[in-house]
Every structure is written in C-alpha cells, then in structure tokens.
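User: My notes are a mess, but here's the protein and zinc ion's SMILES. Can you give me a structure?
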Amino acid sequence: MNDEALSSEEMDELNAELEAETSGSANVPDDVAETPTDELAVVHLKAPCPKCGGAVVVGDRAYESECGWRVWRNILTHDISQAEMEEILRDGESRVIDDFESPKSGKEFSARLKLAASAAADAEADEDTPKRTLELVFVDRPVQSVGSCPKCTSNVVLRAGNYFCEQNTRKGADGEAVTPKCDFVLWGEVSGKTLPEGAVKDLLAGKQTKMLKGFKSRSSGKAFDAALKLTPAGKIDFVFQEKTKKKA
Ligand SMILES: [Zn+2]
Ligand SMILES: [Zn+2]
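Assistant: No problem, the inputs look usable. Here's the predicted complex:
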C-alpha cells in the first residue's frame, strides 16, 4: 500500500488486468458456472443487462445475465455493491471508488468503473470474441485544499511542493490535454526558503503572513527576514520591517 501516483503504464496495465478479469467465458471458475442459481433466492438488480436488456442477477461471485454478460463482484480488491452495479448499469459509470488496489504493485488508486462501449454496442458481435465489460476511468485521489485561489476562488492544492489552483492543470478529467483555466500557482519555495503551510494559508486568505526568517537574496546571497503578502495579480511581495520606526 502506498500513495504514489500511478504512471500511465500502470494505468494501462490495470485496465488490461481488468480486461482479463471481466472478459470472455474462458476463465469462469467451475464453481461459478455450476452454481445452481434456481435453488437460491435470486436477487435481481434494479437495472437491465446492457447486452440483452434482460435481468441481471446477483450470483455467487458475479453479477450476471442469462445472455452471458458478467461482471465479477470483486474487482481489484473492491467489492462492487449492488447499488454501485445498478448505478453503472443505469448511468454508464460509477461514482469515484477510492479503495482499488493494484494486485501487482499494491498501490491504492481511485477510479470510476465505466461500462465499456462494447458491452452495449457489440451485442450482435461474435460471441467468441472476448469483450471487456467494464473499464477503469482514473481520477486523482481527492486532495485537501489549502485555500481558495485568489484569482478564481477554486481550491488550491499542493502538487509536487508547489501550491496550484485546481484549474491550473493541463490534464482534463479524462486525461486529455486541456488549456489551463487559471494560471495561479504559489511556489513552495521563495528565495531559498520553503514556505510553512500556515503562511500559504494566510496568503490565500488575503492576509499578510507573520515575519518569516531565513530568506536568502538570490542576487547578493544575503539572508533576510520578511513577511509576505500577495499582490492583486497573485504574486508574492516581501514586506520588510520598517527599521526607521522605533517601538514606542
Ligand atoms: Zn444479458
Ligand atoms: Zn484559480
């Protein structure tokens, strides 16, 4: 178990694993195929089979339809609840599920389960061709917001040591390239000093920070202390203590 992000290769691998788990009938364990479902209380889902439009029943280990359409009830360590399966059948995809785990790397990841287009569209296609019934739509794990973006009020999140507006991304929800809707970013390091998160929160709240020690001038190498504030343009400004004024 670890929190590192998945690489795109790993995402492809996971979808391939899912395909192996959900496609075709070749890998149906005997005990599932031979379960005498007529002797059990058969539970029908409140949504029809995407392939034949018939009933989907809750089998021993899979959600299945008479036509052969089937989805395992446990996928990549997540138990798909009946409500989730119904949601997938009804809406085409599930909500974000947070507790998937790659059997290979042990990494946990979040994704939606989406009904593969082929499950519905290829209903007439060759029965012998293995078909993926579900696919994973990867999403970033929910990250905690540090504050609101001073430019667009979206959440600001910590990414690789810097504080980015959530809208400041080149990757859309579907993984495709997008033009960032906002360009706000607060660098986590300013003049050689890593900003404490409290200072970042102050800045995002529109406040001036406390006096911070240990900055270092890039040009002269001189150490200095300063408070920080954000300009209306969203850039950091140093606020120096006025040395000419003496405390009364
Ligand atoms: Zn069916
Ligand atoms: Zn923004």
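The mean pLDDT is 81.
User: Great, I'll file this with my notes.
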